Amino acid sequence: MPETAGLVLPSFHLYYASPVKIVATPEGGARVWRVSMETGGWVEENDLFDEIVFAVGGDVFSRTVDQFVQDVELYRSRYLSGDGAVFALYETVRAIQAVAEDEGRVLTVEEAALVRGICRRTFVMFEEELQRAGDPGADPSLAAPDQEA
Fold first, then answer.
1. How many domains does the chain have?
2. Could you list the residue range(s) of the whole structural domain that residue 142 is in?
3. Peptide bond into 26 cis (omega under 30)
4. 88 CB-side CA count, 13 A
5. What's the pTM?
6. pLDDT tens, 40-95?
7. Which branch of life, at top level (predicted)?
8. How do residues 86-97 score in pLDDT, each as one tens digit?
9. Fewest CB within a 10 Å sphere: which of 27, 63, 69, 98?
10. What does the alpha-carbon distance between residue 22 and residue 48 come to, in Å, rounded to a whole number?
């Protein structure tokens, strides 16, 4: 993994409930990508670098790759709507969560594993579509099986 001024990159965060990743540039710098609430794509927001890295704000959390993938997909499923396979899978996740909530319980181990698996799948599907559309922040490889943490 590249390292920028002691920071191991890529790094993954929640910034005020919004998934953010910091990735290395070929020149040795860093780029900050935040998920767009409107499109689910990636918006470059390099001005957040110091606040995230130095935790200047009070609502910044470091995440593992797997947590980040889950965060991104739950964020997308919450704010986006549409047709197609990804959105059908988002609806499946919401239905699983709704049953547990209606029953006043947390997800079972099996339900949690199913939700994690669906989110990994939708992450890859969404990121591949973003890549095809030319989104420079898209990276479906983050949900590769060898990335689980």
1. 1
2. 3-147
3. no
4. 4
5. 0.89
6. 999 999 999 998 988 766 789 999 999 999 999 999 999 999 999 999 999 999 99
7. Bacteria
8. 999 999 999 999
9. 27
10. 10
